[in-house]
Write a structure and sequence with these properties.
Chain A: Pfam families: BPD_transp_1 (PF00528). The complex is a heterodimer of chains A (286) and B (416). By secondary structure, chain A is mainly α. Chain A is built from 13 helices and no strands. In chain B, strand 8 and strand 9 form a beta hairpin. Classes of the chains: A mainly alpha (286), B alpha/beta (416).
Chain lengths: 286, 416
């Protein structure tokens, strides 16, 4: 085959493919290579993986990661759908509320994280201050230091940060629902609740399926909030996988072990994504 | 037309090579943001003495400094002279990307016998010197004299022994005459600057008691020995049993503790002379007292030697000039200005900047200061210890159980 025979389409996508290869494929292969070598570059088999898996904190970290991802996605979806449906209603000042709602999403992650860290602080945080003023609690609560409250607190921050995104998507989805559908059920005497359950949610299904996938991926690789609020503490109670990888590489300088963890995490995420696509994307076709 | 193109290309090439040349010839000095102006002043003086060398000062921030240096070292595109915390010196030397300095600096006129020996230890790896210390410091106990008076304690007599210390902390804890809650001592058990802050404050408790994390040869793990556990237990008990440390203990790093001290919420904190300066600037009304760190009855105090070293990367493009600049900065009178605490060159301590008697306790503690173990795994050992210290502070395990678990993990790490 001569150059002439290659379809022009190939030439058009070639620059992009080369760029992708340089920016995605090469680092992936390089990580895979790092994961099976030692610091001097000699082949070390599965040693890095063994060390990474046998660390006593691994199980806790896996649990935390699942907890964080599931908790975040559920609340982001719940809040986002609710807000989206509300903002689709007609009321005075709707456009103002719509723009105000976007604030958490627009604020840079690190700024939001630091602000929440201060608000959660045991001694001078405004949350404890308000709760004690109202008399709901008598002793300050260590939101970020109590092993029982640290993950819920972080999930709350993550849900607060991302729900506007869901709301905007839901809002956009709802606006494409034809008015005739509502009119039809109203003629049949349906309540608002029926409208949500039988029209809005089914119509939103394709939007929600893709948003959920996006939210899951973002929660899986989101380190900003946890890293800057607790750093994974206290005693690994809020440590998640991506932060552990970062810490291994850039605080301990164990690049090979970090690479092994990255490969494991890549597989872990791949399994989740494949399962998800199987279940939901398949139903999509029905 | 052709000739014009040629001329253009030649001109452009010349311009580019000039630009490349200029950046390659600049000696790049990574200083810290708080020292930027001083570094620029010294760079100007140095350039006047050494025409032909152009120094460009770039300021770093402390957060993530070690990894930024590491990335630069690994990439091979490095600055020429770097300021680094002495605890990071050996882990960076372990990469094999630092220049051994002793012979070249001696030839350049650096007087090594004037430098605090413990500071030199922080830069020594496999018998080679990979850093030039310019700053040395040790913690002492900083306390609020007003709070001492309110609690009926003698403000001129800070606690000397552990028993006196616990007693004072208990008396200081409670509501003061203004109705404000005061805590006796600030335990650092969390926050951003970890595990460093907790290590600097708790390891001395082990050392003073004859314990430690590692034995003298850095091979044996002694973190769960009775002497070590007793030391850690006192540190933990201050929060869990005696309740003389604020409820936010598990989120307090040194900055948070200093803020609590400044508002009168905490009455005693360990700190360096730089903390005294910052407290005076933020809360000039607080009458400060400083004493040596309290020690077990009949034993000496001990403390971690902190400080900063200059390092020069092996791949530095201007190594010779960097050696000259390091030797220039090593002069005691320059260190005395450049340091934020004490100079590592001991004769620099005679400078009038250090004549204030409030620094006496810190000078005294410098004599008891020991370097952290200089092994590459130390950073990870610190993190393992810190995680288990937090377990003990959370009371999810006893101090003995926590230190046993830490010992197991550290032994595994050292055997890998």
């Amino acid at each position: 085959m001569t150059l002439r025979n290659i379809s022009p389409g190939v030439w058009f996508i070639l620059p992009t493919m080369l760029l992708l290869a340089a920016l995605i494929v090469y680092p992936m292969l390089s990580t895979a290579e790092l994961s099976v070598t030692d610091a001097n570059g000699a082949f070390s088999g599965m040693r890095n993986f063994n060390v990474a898996i046998s660390a006593p904190s691994t199980r806790l970290i896996l649990f935390n990661t699942a907890y964080y991802v599931i908790g975040s996605v559920v609340f982001q979806l719940l809040l986002g759908i609710l807000a989206g449906i509300l903002l689709n209603q007609h009321f005075a000042g709707r456009s103002l509320v719509r723009s105000l709602m976007l604030i958490p999403w627009v604020v840079p992650g690190i700024v939001a994280a630091m602000t929440w860290a201060w608000m959660f602080h045991t001694d001078y945080g405004i949350i404890n201050y308000m709760l004690m003023q109202v008399g709901i609690i008598s002793e300050p609560i260590g939101w970020l230091t109590n092993p029982n409250t640290v993950m819920p607190a972080l999930i709350a921050v993550n849900a607060w940060k991302m729900f506007p995104f869901v709301a905007v998507m839901v809002l956009a989805g709802l606006q494409s629902v034809p008015e005739e559908l509502y009119e039809a059920v109203r003629v049949d005497g349906a309540s608002f609740w029926h409208e949500i359950w039988h029209i809005m949610l089914p119509q939103l299904r394709p939007v929600l399926v893709s948003i959920t996938l996006l939210l899951t991926i973002w929660a899986l690789d989101g380190i900003t909030i946890i890293y800057s609020i607790t750093g994974g503490g206290p005693a690994n109670r809020s440590m998640i996988f991506p932060i552990q990888i970062y810490v291994q590489a850039f605080e301990y300088f164990e690049f090979n072990r970090a690479a092994a963890l990255s490969v494991l995490y890549f597989l872990f995420i791949s399994v989740i994504i494949v399962l998800y696509m199987r279940v939901f994307a398949a139903q999509e076709k029905d | 037309m052709k000739r014009r193109t040629k001329m253009l290309v030649t001109g452009l090439a010349l311009l580019l090579s000039q630009a490349a040349h200029a950046s390659g010839a600049d000696l790049v000095w990574w200083t810290m943001n708080w020292n930027e102006q001083k570094a620029k002043d010294y760079a100007a003086e140095f350039m006047k003495e050494n025409p032909g060398i152009n120094v460009r000062v770039e300021a770093n921030v402390a957060g993530g400094l070690q990894s930024r240096i590491l990335v630069a070292l690994q990439s091979g595109s490095t600055p020429d002279l770097i300021d680094v915390q002495n605890g990071a010196n050996v882990p960076l030397a372990e990469t094999g990307k630092l220049e051994p300095l002793r012979d070249r600096l001696t030839a350049a006129g650096v007087k090594f016998d004037d430098i605090l020996p413990a500071s030199l230890d922080t830069a020594t790896y496999n018998g080679q010197l990979y850093g030039l210390p310019f700053q040395a410091e040790a913690h002492a106990l900083i306390y609020n004299k007003g709070a001492f008076k309110e609690a009926g304690l003698d403000p001129e007599k800070p606690p000397q022994t552990w028993a006196e210390f616990v007693d004072a902390a208990k008396k200081l804890t409670g509501k003061n005459s203004k109705g404000q809650q005061v805590y006796g001592y600030g335990v650092s058990g969390g926050g951003a600057d970890q595990p460093g802050n907790a290590l600097f404050r708790s390891l001395p408790f082990m050392w003073m008691n004859g314990g430690g994390i590692l034995g003298p040869d850095n091979k044996e793990v002694i973190i769960n020995s009775p002497a070590s556990v007793e030391g850690v237990k006192l540190y933990v008990d201050l929060f869990t049993t005696y309740k003389v440390s604020p409820p936010s203990t598990l989120e307090n790093d040194s900055n948070a503790l200093r803020r609590l001290f400044q508002v009168g919420n905490v009455a005693m904190i360990p700190g360096a002379t730089s903390d005294i300066e910052r407290i005076r600037a933020a809360a000039p009304d607080i009458e400060l007292g400083v004493g040596p760190l309290p020690h077990p009855e009949g034993k000496d105090p001990a403390v971690i030697l902190g400080g900063w070293n200059f390092i020069i990367p092996k791949d530095a493009p201007n190594k010779d000039a960097a050696i000259k600049l390091a030797a220039f900065m090593s002069k005691p009178e320059r260190q005395a200005v450049y340091t934020t605490t004490f100079p590592a060159a001991m004769s620099g301590l005679n400078d009038k900047r250090f004549a204030d008697p409030i620094m006496d306790a810190h000078k005294e503690m410098l004599e008891y200061a020991r370097p952290q173990p200089t092994i590459p795994q130390w950073g990870q050992i610190g993190q393992i210890y810190y995680n288990h210290l937090q377990e003990a502070l959370l009371q999810s395990s006893t101090v003995q159980e926590a230190m046993d678990a830490a010992a197991t993990e550290i032994k595994t790490l050292l055997s890998q």
